[in-house]
Write a structure and sequence with these properties.
By secondary structure, the protein is of the alpha/beta class. It has three domains: about 150 residues, HUPs (Rossmann fold, 3-Layer(aba) Sandwich), CATH 3.40.50; about 30 residues, no CATH class; about 140 residues, NAD(P)-binding Rossmann-like Domain (Rossmann fold). Helices cover about 40% and strands about 20% of the residues. The longest helix has 18 residues. Bound molecules: NADP nicotinamide-adenine-dinucleotide phosphate.
Length: about 350
């Protein structure tokens, strides 16, 4: 492992890298996941992994005395990071001058000039640049400008059959080399995730909820399910087992989970077509304000999509009815329609 005190120590002939950035004090489980994700990306791309960390702690410069004492020395941090697969650890002196860099300057100075980042792996709460103006969404935008991909949210794929989950992970990694994705049987996948996207056909929903109810308690459940029936080519909303919508049924079945209905009006093929830009609104509803805000932040990571907060879960019935309309329109026009709502105030 190489240890650099500042970017001037990076060898002049250093090629492209996978870079991860953070204070990583204590190198706890969350940090380990990020650095292991970077190591996976490095292995996929055949590139070395560089960890950028800071000394002193940025908070000490920005709000002196505001952060708790560090858990480990920079030397020990570097050793732990090397154990997770980092080829080099670069300790950046966090100065007042450094804290003034805007997000674009930060990316150029820290990620591009010396390290030629091709993939940047960070935690989803990662902030960078003056006044923490940069977030993962901006990092992804700057990645398009400087030709690197930003990875901020690790994905766990669940399936009833573990081999199918593994196949889905291979498909993801073929489309996005170095993506932080892993596959498990549904129960194990739910146990490993704090946020679960429930994307099963309505016919399989009750069985799944029965099996996963306890494991989903306390988690954020993102429901995309739409109960539909098709007769003579006409798509209609199907009865949702006594509830007014699948979203409401799921929240009733999982009283301890934070359910947010979302993405119901967006064709999966559109999300899966990485070459085509996304556009339109993701309307979301759920009874927990913080959960809706969390899903809105995830939507914000998808360039071109806007999250529209529709309030309580009772609105799920209208989202689901809109999907039936969209599918009938798709059939009529051979399209992949989604929705955009006009006239809302700017956030
Ligand atoms: N496709 C879209 O564009 C779209 C858009 C908006 C909303 N939705 C909603 O999203 C949900 C999934 O849609 P989809 O098109 O992805 O459907 P799908 O391909 O038929 O099903 C998705 C996965 O669910 C699992 N599954 C199938 N039957 C199951 C059962 N009885 N119990 C548990 N798991 C089962 C299967 O995975 P394993 O075999 O690997 O377990 C399957 O690959 C649906 O409720 C749909 O209404 C879809």
């Amino acid at each position: 492992m190489q240890r650099w005190q500042g970017l001037d120590d990076v060898p002049g002939d250093w090629g492209s890298s996978v870079v991860t950035v953070g204070v990583f004090d204590g190198v706890h489980r969350g940090h380990q996941r990020i650095v292991s994700g970077a190591a996976g990306a490095g292995a996929d791309l055949g590139l070395p992994v560089v960890v950028i960390t800071f000394d002193p702690h940025p908070a000490e410069v920005i709000h002196p005395g505001s952060h708790p004492p560090l858990l480990c020395t920079t030397r020990r941090r570097a050793r732990l990071l090397a154990g997770l697969g980092a080829e080099a650890v670069c300790v950046l002196p966090f100065t007042h001058e450094f804290s003034q860099l805007g997000p674009d300057e930060f990316v150029r100075a820290v990620l591009m000039d010396r390290l030629h980042a091709r993939r940047v792996v960070v935690g989803e709460n990662f902030r960078f640049g003056h006044r923490a103006a940069g977030d993962v969404a901006l990092l992804a935008e700057l990645g398009e400008k400087y030709d690197f991909a930003a990875v901020g949210v690790p994905v766990v794929i669940g399936s009833r059959v573990v081999e199918r989950a593994a196949a889905a992970v291979r498909t993801i990694r073929a489309a996005v080399p170095g993506a932080s994705a892993s596959g498990y049987e549904n129960g194990e996948a739910v146990a490993r995730a704090e946020r679960v996207v429930l994307a099963v056909p309505f016919a399989g929903l009750a069985g799944f909820l029965g099996r996963a109810r306890d494991a989903l308690a306390g988690k954020l459940v993102i429901d995309v399910v739409v109960p539909l029936s098709v007769r003579d080519g006409f798509v209609a909303l199907a009865a949702a087992d006594g509830a007014a919508s699948a979203g409401e049924l799921i929240q009733q079945a999982l009283p301890a989970a934070r359910v947010v209905s979302a993405f119901k009006n967006l064709p999966a093929q559109r999300l899966g077509d990485l070459a085509a830009p996304l556009e339109g609104d993701v309307v979301l509803c759920g009874n927990d304000d913080a959960a809706r805000a969390e899903v809105a932040a995830l939507v914000g990571l998808l360039p071109g999509l806007r999250a529209v907060d529709a309030g309580g879960i009772a609105n799920a019935r209208y989202l689901e009815a809109t999907t039936a309309l969209l599918l009938n329109l798709n059939r009529r026009y051979g399209a992949r329609a989604s929705i955009a709502i006009l006239g809302l105030p700017e956030p």
